[in-house]
Amino acid sequence: MLDHSLTLTEASLNPETPKQVHIKINGIELEVPEGENLIESAKRVGIDIPYFCYHPRLSKGDAANCRMCLVDVYMPRKNPDGSVVMAKMPKPQTACTLPASEGMAIETESESVVEDRRGILEFLLINHPLDCPICDRGGECPLQNNTLFYGPPISRYIEEKRHFPKAYPLSDHVVFDRERCIHCARCTRFTEDISGDHQLGFFKRGADMEVSTYAHTKYTSKFSGNVIELCPVGALLSRTYRFKARPWDLHTQRSVCSRCSNGCNIKIDYRLNELQRVNARLNEAVNEEWTCDKGKFGHDYVSSATRLTKPRLKRDGQWTEVEWTEAYDVLIEKLKAAGANAGGIGGERCTNEDNFLFQKLFREVLKSHNLDHRLGRYQGPASKPLFERFGYHSMGNSIADLEKMQAILVLGADLADEQPILFLRVRKAWRFHSAHVISAVTHVEEETTRVGDFAAVEMVYKPGTEMTLLRGLLNVMLAENLLPANSGADANKLKASVGDWTPDKAATETGVPADQIRAAARLLAHTPMAILAGKTITEHPQYLEIAAALGDLVEATGNRGNLNIPVLECNTQGAMDMGLLPDSGPGYQSPTGTGMNTQQMLEAAAGGTLQVLWLVGAKLLESYYDPALARRTLENCPFVVVNELTMTQTAEMADLVLPVASVAEKDGTYTNCERRIQRIYKAFDLAPDIKPDWLVFSEVAAQLGGGTPYFSARDVLRDIAAAVPMYGQVNLAALGESGVRWRYPHETPPATPIAPGAGE
Amino acid sequence: MSTSPASPVGGEAREPASLPSEERRFSAQAVAELEEIASHYPERKAACLPALWIAQREYGGYLTPSAIQEVADHLGLSFAEVEGVATFYTMYNLRPRGRHHLEVCTCLTCAVMGAYDLVHKLEHELGIEIGQTTPDGEFTLSEAECLDFCGAATVMQVGDKYFTNLTPDNVLQVIDQLRNSEDYTPARLADAIVKLHIPGSVPPEG
Amino acid sequence: MPILNLLFANRDVPGIQNIDVYEAHGGYAGLRKAVKMDRQAVVDEIKTSGLRGRGGAGFPTWIKWNGLPKNYDAPHYVICNADEGEPGTFKDRELMLALPHLVVEGMILAGYATYSKAGYIYIRGEFVEPAWQIRKAIDQAYKKGYLGKNILGVQGFDYDLYVHMGAGSYECGEESALMSSLMGERGNPRLKAPHAPLPTVAGVWKAPTLINNVETYAAASWILAHSGAEYAQYGTEKSKGTKIMSVSGHVARPGNYEIEMGTPLLDLLNAAGGVTGGKLKAVIPGGSSVQIMPAEKLAAINLDYESCAANGTLLGSGGFMVFNDRTDIVLLMKRTAEFYAHESCGKCTPCREGTRWLFKILDRITSGDGQPGDIDLLLNICRNIDGRSYCGLGDAAAWPIVGAIKAFREEFEYWIAQKRSPVGDNPLPPSPVVVNPLLALTPA
Ligand SMILES: Cc1cc2nc3c(=O)[nH]c(=O)nc-3n(C[C@H](O)[C@H](O)[C@H](O)COP(=O)(O)O)c2cc1C
Ligand code: SF4
Ligand code: FES
User: Fold this and answer.
1) Half-sphere exposure of residue B37, counting CA atoms within 13 Å on the CB side?
2) Which has the least CB within 10 A, B91, B171, C173, C353?
3) How far is C251 from chain B (nearest CA, A)?
4) Residue A449: its pLDDT value, please?
C-alpha cells in the first residue's frame, strides 16, 4: 500500500479561484468564478434551481444523484471557419456538479426541464408515504416545497410502496423513518466528509437500497444531530422534538451554545416559554453550520421542571422558598460582616456582563480580590503559561486559521469531545485541504478520539511521558536539520533541551515506535503548522513545563503564535478577560491588590477563615479537581451563597440559593476560545422571579451603597468597553450577526476588533 | 443484513441491535493472501472485494456480521463501508446457502429457450421454491441474471462451474451428479476467486 | 460467407492458450515489433486502423490511447473491462477462454503506448473458467519476460498485470462504476466530463486511466501484429475491421461469429443456420440494451455502427438475439425490465425508482391486470429516465421498451385488452412464484 489518502481526501465542491468566466443563465449574462457550480451561480441572479442532494459543504463524491437540478446546457463550439455556435448538450445536465466555464449558457425553465423536474419528483414520491400531516418536517420540508412548486399534481403509481418500520431509533437523539428517505446521500456523506465516523452508509442496491448503520447497530456519532437538519425530508428526526410542535408555531431567537468554549451559533426554537429545539445558526468563522450533540440536545435543562423559580434559604437545615427582598437582607448582612473576607468563584456559564459586575462588586464594593473561575489543577499566574512568551492566553490561531495549516499536532486531547468544532476544522483541513494531522494521545483518549482515524501519524504514549515525546520530536528535527534557519530560536538552547533523547531512546520510554516519532517530526517541520493541546495537558502536573516545550517546538519550526491551548468551558475566556482572577483585573490590568485563587479560598473556607463564599455556577462538588477539599469547604464555610438554575449537589450544601436566568432568558455576550465576542439574546421569561446574574450583582452592589444600578446588559457592556482595553470598540452594533474577535493591545493592528465576517 | 431488525417489513420500531460478537476466522494463510492482494493496489481499500471473497471462504460460504468486521479491521475501513459493499454485489451471500447453490439463468435468451420450465422442474423435483434451500441443506435454488453464455442456453451456475445446454430432461442428471459431489460449493467458488488474484495459482485439478 | 476470422484466426488451434503455441502462431510478434517503435507510433497505428471501442459505445480507441500524459512522471493505469454482463453477449468470455494471450498482449501494448506501469483486468465474478485462462496466460507472460521489469530489454518499460474479480453486478461494466468497484467501493458510477475530468486525465485513484473492452484489446494485438492499414481495409468507411457477434436464441447454430463490419444482418443469421422453431419474428442485434427489430425491417440493416443507428437500433456489444414467432414480446420486455431493475445501482432517482416501476407495470400487464393508459405511462416513464439518469444504465433500461412498443405495440394492447398472451401457447411462461415480493431474483 503506497498512499492511503488517494481517494480519502476530497476536492471541495466550490473551489476558490481568482479566474472569472462569463456565462448566461436564462439569457441573463453574468460573471462567476471559474468552476463554480451552477446552482450557486444561479443564486447570484435570483434564479432558483431546485435540488435535494447538493450541499456546498459536502464532497462531490456521491453528489448529483437526486437529479432534481437538471438544466439544459449550451456550450460554445467553434466551426472550422472560426465562427462560434452554441451547441445544446444532448442530455440535460445536473447544475449542482456542472462547473461554470467560459461562454456556457443554461436554461432552467425550458419546457423539457420543467417536465424533467415533474418526472423526478414523481419518481421520488412513488415510494414516499406522503404522510406530511404527521411529519415533523412538514412546513419546513424541501421535498414538500419542491413538490408544491415543481411537482406533478397527482401520482400515476398504483403499485405497492416500499415498507419499513416507522420511527426506527437510530441514535440516542435521532429516529429514522426509512419510508421517507429519498436517498440523497446527504446524511451518508456527512458521516464521511464532516464527522468522519462513516457510520451511515447505503446498503443493498437499486430500489431496495437503504440508508443504515452497520448491522443496524446504534449510530453513536458525537455529531449525529446535524443529519436531522441536513435531511431534506422527514426521514431523520429528533427524538426529543418529535411531535412537539409545528414549525409555524415556533418562535426563533438567535443565541450561542453554552455547552463548551467553541461558541457555536445556534437558534433557539421555543413555544410558550418552553425551549423546543436547538438548531445550528450559520457562522462561517466558528461552527459553519454544524453543532455537536452536546449543544443541539444538551439545552433541555433550560426548560427542565427542576428549574429554580424562587430564592431558597436554609434555616436550621431546612430549605424554605423566600422572596428576593428577604434573600437580599440575609446576603447583605453576611457580606457587610465579611467585607474583604468574602470570596467569589464563578464565571464559566456566565456572560461577560455577569462576570464583569461580579468582580466589580468584589473589587470595588467589598474591596476583596478573592476572585477566580478556575476549577482545574493549574491556578498559577494567568500570564505564565503563554502570555509572557507569546502575548496571548489560550489560542494563537482563530478556528478558521486551522484550515490553512499544512500540519496540525493534536496533543493530549479527546478533541471531538473537548473541542467539537475545532475537531471538525482539523478534519476539514485534512479532508478538503490535505493537511497532515498528527495525533499524540494516551491510550485512554485513544479509545474515544476520532483524530486517529485520519491522522497521518497516530502516536499513543504512556501517560506522563509527554516531555520525553516532545524532546524526541525536537531531537529528530535537529538531527535531520529540518528546522528553518531564520526561526529565531536559540539552537544551542534547543540542543541542550533535547539532550540525548534520540527517537529510539524516547521510544523505549514513551512506548511510541521510533519510526513514528521520526515520521511525525518530519511532518511537523512544516509551516504553517499548529499545535492543539487538550485537557490532559492543562490538567498535567507538569503543565508549565510542557507548555514551554510546546512553545520551543512552534518557535523552532517557525510557527510562532500557532500554539493553542484552548480553554474548555463556555465563557472561561470571558471570565479571564473580565478579570475573574486573583492576580489580574479587567483586561488583564494589574489590580490594586491581589487575593486568593480558588484553591486558597477553598482551604481558607474549609478552615473557617473565609466567611462568605459566593459560587456563581461553579459546581465545586461536581467539577473541582479535588472533590474532597470541595466537600470540606462546603461543610465548614460559615456562609455559602450560590447562583444556580437547579439544585445541584453543590447548591444542596449551600446556605442561600438564588434562581438565575439561563442562556435562553437573558441578553449578553460570551467570548469563545478564539476570543470571539458573540451576542446571546433573551428568548423568553421562564418565571417572574428569575433574575440574570448581572442584575443580582448590580442590585446587591447598590444596596451595599456601591455604584449606580444597571438597567440592561447593554449598559454593562458599555462599561466593559470603557474598562477593558481590548473590548474598547465593542458595542452591540459592532458585534453584529457573527461577533468579533478581539486583539491584544500589542497585536498589530492593535486593539480594534475585526469587523464581522472579515476573513477570521 | 437481510435478517436483522429493520429488514423491509412494516411494523413497530425497535431499539438498535447491539454490536455483533467479534470472532476472528482468518487463518494465517488467509491473512497472507490478503496482504499479497492488497499489495497489487496503490490503496489498501481496493482489496475490499477480494477480502470479502476471502471472508466468504473462511466463514464457510457466507458473510456473517463478524466477517464484515474482520474485513473492515484488516483494511482500516468502517464496518458500514464494508457492509455497504457486501450488500451491493449479488455473489456475496449474507445468508447460508445449501452445499450446492443452483443459479439458473432466466435472462432473455435462456428465458426464451425454456429456462423457466427448467426452474419449475427443479422446484418440483427439489420440493422448494426459488430462494429456498432443501431441508437436507443440499441445494439452494436461485434465479440468476444473464450469465453471459447465452449461446449455450439454458445455463446454470453452480459454484465455480457453468452447466450448459440444460433442458428439463437433462437437468436431473446434473442434480444427481452434484448430490454426491464435494465440488462446486460456495466456499470452493470463493476459494477459486481468491486464488485467481494471486500470481502462480492453478485451478483445482480438472 | 460473411465470416472473417481475424481475432479468431487461431481460435481452434489446439493448445493456443499455451504461450508456446501462441508464439508459434505469431503471438507476441506484435509486441516485439511495437517495443521497437516509438510509443506515439503505436498509438498512430491504432489510429490508422480506425478501431472503435467494442464495449458498446464504439468510441474511437486511439483518442483514449492518445489521451494519457506522455511520460512516466505519475502513475497511469490500464484497465481491461472484462465484466461482460450485457444479456445476449458472450464474446469476451470466449476470447478469454480460447485466446487469453491475445487479450494479455493487447493490454501490454496499451501499457507500453500509454506509459503505464500497471494494468488491471476486471473479470466478472461468474467467469471463473475464463479467468483461469487469463491467470495462466499472465503467469506465462511473466516467465517469458513479456511482463515485469525492463520488458523485452526496453529500459524502464516496467509493467505488471493484475487480475481483479467482480462479485456480481452488471453495473460494474459501466466504466466509471468499474473504477469504483476496482477501488473497493460499491459499484456506483462516478461523475463524468464535463462534471469531472476524463478518465484519461483522472480516472481510477485520480490517476490517468485507459479503459477498454476485452475485444478492443484483442483487436489491438491483431493490429500491431499486422498493421493498422490492413485492419482498415475491412469494414465500412466509419466502422473498420471486424466485430465478434454473439448469436443466440432461436437459431440453428448459436455461437460467436466474427464478421466484417457492414455485413448484412440477414447474412449473419443465415451463417448461423437461420431461425428455428418457427418463422422469424424479431432480432435484437446488439445486446439487451438496444432496440428490438421486427423481421420486416431486418433486410435493411447492415452490422456496423452507422447502419444500425440509421435503422433505429444499435450495434452495441454484439449480443445478437434471434426470436421466432412464438416469442411473446411483452413477456420478453418484462424480463428485460426485471433485469435492469435488479441491476440498477440505486444511486440516482430516475433509474432506481423508474426501472423498478417499469418492471412492476409490465408485471401487472402480464398478470392480466393491465390498465388502458399503461402503454403511454410506460413511454412517459421511459422518457423521464432516458438521458436523466446518472449513467447509461437508465438509458439502456428505457430504449428496449420504447423500441418494443414502437415495433410491437399491438401485442401490448392485446395483453391489456385480452389479459393473455397474443402468441398461442405461451413460450415464455410467467416467472415462478417468488419469495420476496419486491425482488424477483433471490435476495442476498
Ligand atoms: C450499463 C452499462 C454496462 C456496460 N457494460 C459493459 C460491459 O459489460 N463490458 C464492456 O466492455 N463495456 C461495458 N459498458 C461500456 C463501458 O462503459 C465502456 O464504454 C467500455 O468499457 C469502454 O471500452 P471500449 O472503448 O473498448 O468499448 C457498459 C456501459 C453501460 C452504460
Ligand atoms: S435519510 Fe434523508 S439525508 Fe439520508 S439519504 Fe435519506 S433523504 Fe437523504
Ligand atoms: S442537487 Fe443536483 S443532482 Fe441532486
Assistant:
1) 31
2) B171
3) 10
4) 81
Give the separation between CA C159 and CA C164, rounded to whole angstroms: 16
Q: What digits encode the pLDDT tens for the residues C251-282?
A: 999 999 999 999 999 999 999 999 999 999 99
Q: Which residues contact C195 (CB under 8 A, 6 or more apart)?
A: A60, A64, A93, A94, A97, A98, A99
- How many whole angstroms separate alpha carbon A78 and alpha carbon C96? 43
C-alpha cell at A681: 439574546
Helix (H) and strand (E) counts in chain A: 27, 29
Residue that the C-alpha cell 466537600 belongs to: A631
Instruction: Check: CB of residue A586 under 8 Å from CB of residue A356.
Output: yes
DSSP assignment, residue B21? P
pLDDT in tens, C81-104: 999 999 999 999 999 999 999 999
Query: For the residues of C95-152, what is the DSSP string, one character each?
Result: HHHH-HHHHHHHHHHHHHHTT-SEEEEEE-TT-HHHHHHHHHHHHHHHHTTSSBSSGG
**Mean of the pLDDT values across residues A554-562?**
93
Buried b (16+ CB within 10 A) or exposed e, A290-328: bbbbbbbbbbeebbeeebbebbbbeeeeeeeebebeebb
**A566 preceded by a cis bond (ω within 30 of 0):** no
Per-residue pLDDT band for C429 (boundaries 50, 70, 90) equals low
Q: How far apart are CA A166 and CA B6, in angstroms?
A: 10
Residue to mutate, A53, A211, A219, ligand 2, most ligand atoms under 8 Å from C-beta: A211
Rounded Cα distance between A69 and A437, Å, is: 36
Q: Give how far the C-alpha of residue C25 lies from the chain's centroid of Cα atoms, to the nearest Å.
A: 27
Helices (H) and strands (E) in chain B, counts: 8, 4
Give the integer Cα–Cα distance in Å for A550 and A557: 11
Per-residue pLDDT, averaged over A295-300, amounts to: 94
Question: How much is the average pLDDT of A574-590?
Answer: 94
pLDDT tens track for A654-697: 999 999 999 999 999 999 999 999 999 999 999 999 999 999 99
The residues, any chain, with a CB within 8 Å of residue C363's CB and separated by 6 or more, are: C334, C338
Based on its alpha-carbon atoms, the radius of gyration of chain C, rounded to whole angstroms, reads: 22
Give strand pairing partners of C88. Answer: none
How many other C-beta atoms can be found within 10 angstroms of the C-beta atom of residue A248?
8
What average pLDDT is seen over chain B? 90
What letter does residue A726 receive in the DSSP assignment? G
SS3 call for C89: coil
Pocket test for ligand 1, best of C209, C213, C395 (most atoms within 8 A of CB): C213
Q: Count of alpha carbons within 13 Å of A89, Cβ hemisphere only?
A: 21
Sign of CA dihedral B76, B79, B81, B86: positive
- Reduced to 3 states, what is the DSSP secondary structure of residue A87? strand
Contact by Cβ (8 Å): C207, C77: yes
Q: Which amino acid is at A698?
A: S
Query: Which ligand 2 atom lies nearest to the CA of residue A188?
Result: 4
- DSSP secondary structure of C409-434: HHHHHHHHHHSS-SSSS-SSPPPPP-
Residue C365 CA to residue C368 CA, distance in Å, equals: 5
CA distance C380 to chain A (A): 9
Q: Output the CA–CA distances (angstroms, integers) from residue A281 to A12, A226, A265, in the order listed.
A: 22, 12, 5
Q: Which residues of A touch C364 (CB under 8 A)?
A: 159
Ranges A372-376, A474-478, A745-749, C115-119: which has the least confidence: A745-749
Residue A163 contacts B where some CB pair is shorter than 8 Å: yes
- Residues on chain B touching A216 (C-beta within 8 angstroms): 4-6, 16-17
- Smallest CA-to-CA distance from A713 within A697, A737, A729 is with A697
What integer pLDDT is reported at residue A7 of this predicted model? 61
Q: What is the mean pLDDT of residues A637-664?
A: 97
Beta-bridge partners for C235 = C240
DSSP secondary structure string, A309-332?
A: -S-EEEETTEEEE--HHHHHHHHH
